[in-house]
Amino acid sequence: MLLAPLRERNYRLWAGADLVSTAGTWMQVLGLNWVVLAATGSAAMMGAVVMLQSLPVLVLGGWGGALADRLPARPALILCQALRAALAFALAAGTGHVLIFAVALASGVISAFEGPMLGRFGSALVPREALGSALALGSVLGSAGRIGGMALGGVLVGVTGPAALFMINGISYLAALAALAAMRAGDLRSLPLAPPGEGGVRAGLRYLVSSPVVLIVLALSFVLGSLGRNYQVSMAAMAAGPLHGGSGAYGLLSTVFAAGAVAGGLLLAGSGRSTLPVLVASGVSISVLQLLSGLAPNLLGFAAALLPIAAGAVVFDTVVSTRVQLDTRADMRGRVLATTGIVSSLSGLVGAPAVGWLADTLGARGGLILCGLVTTAAAAGGALALARVTGGAIPGLRRVAEQPA
Fold it and tell me: Which pTM was predicted?
């Protein structure tokens, strides 16, 4: 199952281009952070740049999903990749404050429309039965691209300056454009478009309200994403606080987390089991492990807990994406995927400050333990709710009737 998606030529093209593009994207992220921090000395200004990239997804995500269900995915993605390349080359030419904020805002607008398109396009590259493995393998490639991009960018930014990182990112988007152009149109699976009168945001909301399984999955994703996935905050709090490790310890924990993420993606891609019982089991497991991680006596104990947490988090997130695609009508998929993106953005915007506040108020250990208790209760409640609406029991939830893809 692990290599099943790679049998498809179009998927191989896109996977290779995505790896290169993801590495370039994280090089640009590092370069932008460097420029903003060097120019202003303010972490708050860095936060403002991140917020400018997130807000358009919250505001425009519904319309992005509606367009994804009404437009052919491949031409739209070619336009989005070309616009991203232009923004990267603009940063390479100059990095004034106004330009940086404008690029951040424009990138967020593109993401609002591109995200649902990418989700729909992924289901056109592989057979339905290989979709779960394809998404898991994509997660592995994304983690590898992030690690490679940040590592290479960290070396280059001190040698060449940030402009070179922006130029490399722009070139990486050209690789994505070349992959899209080289794909065989005849090998792409047909994606039904929304019929007239059913392509709007309201129609998508009505469909979502009538899909209890998807609503429960999204609710679980929000709670576990906000209180259980903001480990960049809790890792820093633990390293600087009770573990007495400093910046070196934080770097070690970040590396362990990245390694766990890759392992989780490989595990799921190999099994191909993106089912509701796996979703529930991974959600409960990472929540209990989060609670226990707050009791870790030392750095090595905390790192040992982080490894399976990171692996389980990737499994959980990938199964969420897979179920959202498989358990929704093909002509509604873009709008539901857009909702998933909105939930993810809200998780970061709400959860990161909340986890930070809890760490400041209750201490790093107390914050982790309380968040673990809440997410464990939410995961258990979600399991019961899914069992009720599907007429099954955990384990062994009755598989939701699948719509033709």
Answer: 0.76
